[in-house]
Design a protein that fits this description.
By secondary structure, the chain is α/β, with parallel strands linked by helices. It has 4 domains: about 1-155, VC0802-like, CATH 3.30.2130; about 175-220 and about 260-390, Vaccinia Virus protein VP39 (Rossmann fold), CATH 3.40.50; about 410-505, RNA methyltransferase domain (HRMD) like (Transcription Regulator spoIIAA, 2-Layer Sandwich); about 530-744, Rossmann fold. Helices cover about 35% and strands about 25% of the residues. It contains 20 helices and 32 strands. The chain has an 8-stranded mixed sheet with strand order 2-3-1-4-8-7-5-6. β18, α14 and β19 (about 500-505) form a beta-alpha-beta unit.
Length: about 750
């Protein structure tokens, strides 16, 4: 049997380990969860023990050759639904549809599957059929379509697995149970559980108790299935084995009984007495009240006398901007940082926070971080080691000596020359960027031939240094020396820590190299532009997730997007679409051939609090094929194709040779009074004469190059393209064409 566990972003590795512990085989992670193989017993055990998955599905049927709704119906009609449904059962169908050009309405797919199930059952049972129920069905089937592949699942777990059953009622900003478990799994404290070394855990912002209750369940091996109040969906499936289920239940109970008195101590406090009482009630319902010491305390007033003895670990979710105003949050994090460093010396600390800026007020450098989602909020789980006075003094002295030695070393003549140029560039542009509210900009672009690189400064904290590949005639040792000199000059000129200077080599990218990962750190940071947040990655890909030279055109899009339907072709991470939504676009459609970038794009929408389902659509497709296969029309189109691209799944694309057919295809979708923005980075690009004749074309390249890119006016070409027609009410339509100096 094949199972699929739905898991929140960045937690699939945790669920994969849970599947392995449950006895699963062929465990494979995906962007949405974990797929694994196993017997019915494995399915029961995983569903009852997972603390991470939100739902478990079991695969029933698979077809990879579905290219129409009729074919979906025909394929489903031939399946033995009578083996999974009784006439007395009620059922419902849910669906997810991705990258499917042949199906424009995902709900229509579920209707076709429903018809197939009903017709099959009527054929087998002499015209009798089971009923549909959307409120409380006996069986739920889930249809998943991606392209031409269709998988039909049965719901195996039922109601969200994070609902353990120990919390009554809801309060604002509650941490869900499966996220609390993920936080604990990621913490250093969990290592003590794995090693069976009793330790002390403290949550000083316990709220209604989710973290301490989940910690008690983990430390004492109490499976969620032992406290769950609601029945599982598999109990209503036709293959349910009650004896096997009871066997698994008994084994889990025996394991918990063995760990009843294992020495782990858990402390929880909160400034709110009401919260503490709710936390106690939750612990009582979960059966772990005896394992947790609750108290009403203000963390900012903790003293050494309040600290329990033993190896100490703090795992907590303090309030942030959603629950407190910004001023209160800043003060809270500043004071908490002081308390941690003065009172909890020698402890390990894990703090979950949705605002990474707040973490900076703690005034400690995280040893590591994890990205997790609290609903739609992207959170950082920051891990700290609170050093003792002796440890801190030794570390500071070592770092001081290392930096002093590095900075006291005289710069070579070449490095000094690079340093002088960087200082000059910064002095001429930094104030202007600050006045415009720009926090990510270019400070150097091969200004000197000997040091051929582009250097971008992000948020005054990170440097992305892209070295242009040196010619083959340059000695490799000389090239390496010059790069080292440029990195050292950059550190001194900007003050950016060397750990935050990311160096890559830029060369012509073709085929799969355009999307190839350089590393697998999966460490993302939040950058800001034009009032939106953008996830950037400095280590894993050649590009960071945002093309800084297009900042002005994205601002133009934001200014002109109100009430518009926006199409983003070759969308990359959809930064243009973010600006469109910020500007009031009523919908965005985002198309790219890379699943990686589409996933990244959707994460960008999520961190801004915008839907990836309603009003914003994402399609993995060749852009020209998408334009020929669809019929929707748009008011504003942004098209920024690569210079060259090829793939096994589609024909190669050359922007100079193929831009005319691309523009023609896109213009079929442009409303008569709409605007298409066409840009590219091919330095010798020339607009096709046929395009100049058919449409109103305005070359706005110069106006779309920011001050930080003025050193290279050929960084990109950008055009506004409109249909040629007279606007009602206007006396005349002025069509301005600028191409290679020619005006008409």
């Amino acid at each position: 049997m094949i199972y699929f566990a739905q898991v929140a972003a960045n937690q699939n590795d945790l669920a994969a380990r849970e599947a392995e512990r449950a006895g699963a085989s062929n465990v494979r992670t995906t962007s949405a969860g974990v797929q694994f193989s196993g017997t019915l017993e494995v399915g029961y055990r995983f569903t009852m023990t997972t603390r991470i998955a939100s739902r478990v599905l079991v695969a029933l049927f698979y077809d990879e050759d579905i290219d129409s709704a009729d074919k979906l119906y025909e394929s489903a009609c031939g399946l033995p639904w009578e083996e999974h449904l009784s006439l007395s059962d009620t059922f419902q169908i849910t669906q997810t549809v991705q990258s499917c050009n042949w199906l424009k309405n995902s709900y229509f797919a579920s209707l076709k599957l429903k018809d197939a199930i009903v017709d099959r059952m009527k054929n087998v049972h002499d015209g009798m059929r089971p009923d549909i129920s959307k409120e409380n069905p006996d069986v739920t089937f889930h249809l998943h379509i991606r392209g031409t592949k269709a998988i039909i699942y049965a719901d195996f777990s039922g109601e969200g697995l994070y609902k353990r059953g120990y919390r009554s009622g809801e309060v604002d900003a509650v941490l869900k149970e499966h996220l609390a478990s993920a936080v604990l799994y990621r913490s250093e404290w969990y290592r003590t559980v794995l090693d069976n070394k009793p330790s002390v855990l403290l949550d000083p912002f316990c709220g209604v108790g989710t973290i301490p209750v989940e910690a008690a369940l983990i430390a004492h091996h109490i499976a969620p299935g032992l406290i769950r109040k609601q029945p599982y969906a598999f109990e209503k499936l036709k293959n349910f084995d009650r004896d096997l289920y009871n066997k698994v239940l008994d084994e889990l109970g025996d394991e918990a009984e063995k760990e009843r008195d294992n020495g782990f101590r858990i402390y929880a406090s909160d400034i709110s007495r009401m919260n503490v009482e709710k936390a106690k009630a939750a612990a009582l319902k979960a059966g772990v009240l005896d394992y947790i010491d609750f108290s009403v305390k203000d963390f900012t007033k903790y003293t050494a006398e309040d600290i329990p003895e033993g190896d100490g670990y703090i795992v907590t979710d303090p309030p942030y901007g959603v629950r407190l105003n910004d001023t209160d949050c800043t003060a809270l994090y500043e004071k908490s940082g002081q308390i941690l460093q003065n009172v909890f010396k020698g402890w390990h600390v894990a703090i979950l926070c949705a605002d990474s800026q707040l973490l900076s007020y703690i005034d400690m450098k995280p040893e590591r971080t994890n990205a997790l989602y609290n609903g739609g909020l992207l959170c950082q789980l920051a891990h700290y080691i609170v050093f003792t006075d002796e440890q801190k003094a030794a570390i500071i002295e070592k770092a001081r000596k290392r930096k002093e030695e590095r900075l006291s070393t005289p710069l070579s003549p070449g490095a000094q020359m690079a340093y002088n140029r960087l200082v000059k560039n910064l002095s001429s542009i930094k104030k202007e960027m600050a006045d415009e509210g720009v926090t990510c900009y270019r400070i150097y672009d091969a200004d000197m031939p000997e040091y051929s690189a582009a250097i971008d400064l992000y948020e005054d904290t990170f440097i992305n240094l892209s070295e242009y590949a040196p010619p083959a005639t340059i000695d490799s040792e000389d090239a390496a020396r010059r790069l080292d000199e440029l990195v050292l000059a950059t550190e001194r000129a900007t003050g950016v820590d060397p750990d935050n200077i990311f160096v890559k080599q830029r060369k012509e990218q073709k085929g799969k190299d355009q999307y190839r990962k350089l590393a697998g750190k999966n460490k993302f940071y939040v950058a800001h532009e034009n009032g939106v947040k953008v996830l950037v990655n400095f280590s894993d890909y050649l590009d960071t997730g945002i093309f800084l030279d297009h900042r002005p055109i994205r601002a133009w899009i934001q200014e002109h997007a109100e009430g518009k339907r926006f199409l983003n072709l070759f969308c990359y991470t959809a930064t243009a679409s973010l600006n469109a939504v910020k500007g009031g676009a009523i919908s965005t459609t985002n198309v790219d051939s890379s699943a990686t970038y589409l996933d990244w794009a959707m994460e960008n929408f999520k961190i801004n609090g915008w839907s990836t389902d309603i009003g914003n659509f994402f399609y993995r497709s060749d852009c020209i094929q998408f334009l020929w296969d669809t019929f929707d029309r748009y008011d504003l189109i942004f098209c920024d194709p690569p210079t060259y691209s090829n793939s096994k799944s589609r024909a190669s694309f050359d922007v100079q040779k193929d831009h005319a057919r691309l523009i023609d295809a896109a213009m079929m979708h442009l409303e008569k009074d709409g605007v298409m923005i066409f840009s590219n980075n091919y330095r010798r690009f020339k607009m096709d004469e046929s395009i100049l004749e058919k449409y109103s074309v305005e070359d706005i390249s110069e106006e779309t190059i920011g001050e930080d890119f003025k050193r290279d006016m050929k960084i990109h070409k950008c055009y506004l393209i409109r249909h040629k027609f007279r606007i009602p009410g206007e006396k005349r339509m002025v069509i301005k064409v600028r191409e290679n100096g020619r005006k008409a």
